[in-house]
Amino acid sequence: MLVPIFTLKLNHKINPRMVTIGKFDGVHPCLTAATQAGKVFIHNPHARGQRPAAHRLSHSTQDSDISLLNINQAVTCLTAGKLGPNTTGDTLLVGSQTNLLAYDVHDNADVFYREVSDGANTIVLGKLGDIRSPLAIIGGNCALQGFDYAGADHFWTVTGDNVRSLVLFDFTGDGKNELLVGSEDFDIRVFKEDELVSEMTENETVTSLCHMHGSRFGYALANGTVGVYDRNARYWRIKSKNHAMSIHAFDLNADGVVELITGWSNGKIDARSDRTGEVIFKDNLSSSVAGVVEGDYRLDGQTQLICTSIEGEVRGYLPAGKDLKGNLMDSSAEQDLIRELSHRRQNLLLELRNYEENAKGVSETNSGVGVIPANTQLQTALSVRPATEAQKAHVELSISTPNETIIRAVLIFAEGIFEGESHVVHPSVQNLSGCARVPIVPPKDIPVDLHIKAFVGGKTSTQFHVFEITRQLPRFSMYDVNFDSSADPPTGSVTFSISERPQRVVMWLNQNFLLPEGVESPDVTFNSLRGGGLLSVSMSCARRSLRSDTSCIISLCGIRSVSTTTCLSSDHERVAYVDEFHSVHQKLTAAMADHSNYIRNMLVQAEDARLMCDIRQRKRYRELYDLNRDLVNEYKIRSNNHNALLACLKSVNLAIQRAGRLRVGKPKNQVISACRDAIKSNNVNSLFRIMRAGTASS
Questions:
Q1: Which phi and psi angles does 449 have, rounded to 5°?
Q2: FRET pair for 642, CA 20 to 30 Å: which of 160, 345, 373, 413?
Q3: So what's the pLDDT on residue 206?
Q4: Which residues does the UniProt record annotate as the domain BBS2 GAE (predicted)?
Q5: Across the beta sheet with 289-295, what order do the strands follow?
């Protein structure tokens, strides 16, 4: 049984997912975490008695080993690592919703302090692609931004939604790091600098990412799922009723291959094989896990796995010795495994008994129990169903048999469509038939494999045959063909040239849409059943045009294009609001500063009047009260303006991402870079032109 080699009880609460270890003097590892009231604590048991200078850092009154860093804002992320080329120790990086602080703990001095308009939800430090210097890369409101040691902005790009997790490693195997981004739109994206090279879709917000080894990485979702990918292929995944708070790669059983260590919201810590997901070790903290890190915290030359809880409990584990290999769990865990195997044995015996009874039924010629015709097979069909008064728009999956057999039950597995990823149809005895219809509402435009299992038998059967079949739901299944030629065309449009014949375009349409029979022309108009609006596709003289009020046009460029001309009026309207909100924000900030100074002066005058027993003191305090009330109201207005500004910035970032995804290869990177330059120079008209034509020139 593997037991902790040290346990600490720190007198500070720890914010979830905000734990790191840094060697700030270049020698001693220090456990660092965000705590309450906008503070970061640094636990350094190796330098007792040293008092920090009085800039930001101060000693805790509760523990002499802990120093407190006052951020004076709610901390949203932190990390530590080597950022500068000539620094002795690691740099501490702390992010908030408005700023990024790079701090030299050893010298107790700011390295840089930058405003980040898109916020900092998560942060990673390291080298990216061909960029020479290490970068502190933050993920915020649909945007990624990287800063070097001097605070210079060397990297910026946009992504699909609010960023929740980042990791740097060599994903493609070319010897250079790529950036993996997990976001709230359920996607894991891989960036080679500012170029999107790969994309994987999950079924919940991606809350954590960690590099395992080679091209393999672990991930965690907001619904309690953890798993491992090797490049684009998922090796395994498991789902828990608890939430994964932190994941980390560490070789706990000393077999030379790292395991996926997961800290859970119920306090459980487990280690799983990177190949199979099998649990090889587990332990429990008294409260939810806050973070899992590693470091030589005892300075004995051995790296320990360090687990922390939100209540400040810290445990350190060494990799297993030779005597413990293959036996990391205690006896109770082994008993749980024996019970699980026993339960599995009972299930297999029951299944064997059913097979025996079925074989007996076949041998009895007078009994038709379990016997079905030899030509029985499962047939499936997909069709689009517009909304009615009784039911919203959906895709209907029809499952049937070609003879008089009945379908007793249907089980469908599909990622990201059904709650719990599965759906069961179990008709009542009175409604049994040879056909079952299942409504499906895919939330996103992605292809989904439907794994179908159906129980098929005769009308009087007590035993049923299980038929299995897989059917793919096309990417744009929630679009219905519109045969109304008088409908107004969509306002948005994309135009580009391709070297494909019309027949190839029709083939592509049939693969990605649910088209009725007889559609042989590439000129088609669709209704969007999910968000409303029209999508029009037309082609003439090898020039293809897409007109749409929906975001579908982004994915339709799956037929590889080089450069496009667009007209997206709704995006332009959103961009135009940003300047207005920025202007209001600056005016409100200036007004609040004036009022603050006035209140400060008024407070001094009121106190002077009180001490001198001046009869006017009541009037002074009444004026002070009125000013304070006005200041609170101005703050509420400023807060609402700030939220509206964030929403507009998100819309701008999404618009830039859409403009980039409408191009492929070099034109895509040029558009994103040019959009960034237009934003920096506050040139809205230029931004419009770039998004529309791909270049700032008129």
A1: -85, 125
A2: 160
A3: 95
A4: 391-476
A5: 6-9, 313-317, 304-309, 289-295
